[in-house]
Amino acid sequence: MTEFETVDIDDNICQFQYTKELNDLDNEVTFKVYSIPLNEMRWFSYRVKIINEDLIKSEHLSVNFNTEFSKKGIPEKIIEIASSELNSNIQSSPISFQNGNYLTEPSRKAWERLVAQNENAVLDSENDCFIYKRTD
Fold it and tell me: Which are the contacts of 99, defined by CB distance < 8 A and separation ≥ 6?
């Protein structure tokens, strides 16, 4: 597992580890974030769909009812990690409801925080989504 750090809502440094699982059938990758020490029964998950070699779509961010992962800065960090690991730009779901597809309120807030703290993340008003631009 690979380790990373975040800063929580109270400015404490938090340490986590993650795995990456590829689902070739659906062209999806799921990042599972675990606490240190590891508890395999509790994780935060982030699933993306590979659209092409330059773009992945953010599909799902979830604490999976594990509140110990809330307010820890995990969504912002795992989006950065996913972009780096997959060497791609990441596009959020649409901000507005479109054919059953939309950005949930917690995910929208995570993307807004990411835009506020990282110049690689932007609001793309024209396409009604957020974009995280990979760093080369």
Answer: none
∠ CA 57-62-64, rounded to 5°: 145
Q: How far apart are CA 33 and CA 70, in angstroms?
A: 12
pTM over 0.85: yes
pLDDT(118) > 90: yes
If you search the block for the tokens 């409801």, which residue do you land on? 97
Tokens for 57, please give them. 């779509």
In angstroms, the CA 118 to CA 101 distance is 25
Taken in order 66, 70, 74, 76, is the CA torsion positive or negative? positive
- Positive or negative torsion for Cα 104, 75, 113, 52: negative
CB 93 within 8 Å of CB 85? no
Contact 79, 87 (CB under 8 A): no
φ/ψ of residue 44, rounded to 5:
-105, 140
- Closest to 111 measured CA to CA, from 98, 136, 129, 99: 129
